[in-house]
């Protein structure tokens, strides 16, 4: 996974489909969430700036993300990480929140982010979100599983 260290564009160029294909992206607001998926905070990055993210593996179980405008660091985040059997790094910013009594009167919310390396050297970011609840067995919820490709600018 040491090949993962490098600098990548902050905005994705491709989205992966459920069938494994790719779709080209054109500066859509939903694709501007790399920083938010990693840090759980929102910073507005506009497309007119020269933004990038530098990814550095810090030892065996940590990864650092350095969000930059030109060469200046705007924000940095360090997370724990665990290598999964499918070759993706599961980041330590995942969470599960349970409210009330699930399936009777309550619900749950979960979120996780994974990163990996594409065959062309680009970064893959996969973000999964699920919110579900119930009121006396009447189920409702929302979930999504997005995966994006970020073009590599250079290796470190």
Short description:
The chain is mainly beta and 156 residues long.
Describe this structure in words.
This protein has 156 residues and is mainly beta. The protein has 1 helix and 12 strands. The protein has one helix at residues 34-39, and strands at residues 6-9, 14-16, 22-24, 51-57, 62-69, 72-83, 89-91, 95-101, 105-117, 123-135, 138-150, 152-155. Strands 1, 2, 3, 4, 5, 6, 7, 8, 9, 10, 11 and 12 form a 12-stranded antiparallel β-sheet that branches. β9 and β10 (123-135) form a beta hairpin. The protein is globular and about 55 Å long. The model has no long low-confidence stretch (mean pLDDT 83).
Poorly predicted regions: none
Order of helices and strands: EEEHEEEEEEEEE
* Tertiary shape: globular
Secondary-structure class: mainly beta
Report the major sheet.
Answer: 12 strands, antiparallel
Rounded to an integer, what's the Rg over CA atoms? 17 Å
Number of strands: 12
Q: For the terminal residues, how far apart are their CA atoms?
A: 13 Å
| pLDDT averaged over residues | 83
Query: Given the structure, what is the number of helices?
Result: 1
Q: Helical proportion?
A: under 10%
Beta-strand content? over 45%
């Amino acid at each position: 996974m040491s090949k993962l260290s490098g600098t990548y564009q902050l905005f994705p160029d491709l989205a992966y489909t459920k069938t494994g294909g790719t779709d080209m992206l054109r500066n859509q607001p939903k694709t501007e969430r790399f920083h938010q998926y990693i840090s759980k905070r929102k910073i507005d990055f506009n497309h007119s700036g020269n933004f990038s993210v530098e990814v550095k593996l810090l030892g065996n179980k940590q990864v650092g993300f350095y969000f930059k405008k030109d060469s200046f660091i705007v924000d940095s985040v360090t997370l724990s990480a665990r290598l999964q059997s499918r070759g993706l790094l599961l980041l330590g910013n995942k969470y599960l929140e349970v409210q009330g009594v699930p399936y009777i009167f309550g619900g749950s919310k979960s979120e996780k982010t994974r990163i990996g390396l594409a065959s062309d050297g680009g970064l893959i970011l996969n973000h999964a979100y699920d919110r579900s609840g119930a009121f006396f067995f009447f189920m409702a919820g929302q979930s999504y599983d997005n995966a994006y490709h970020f073009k590599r600018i250079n290796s470190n």
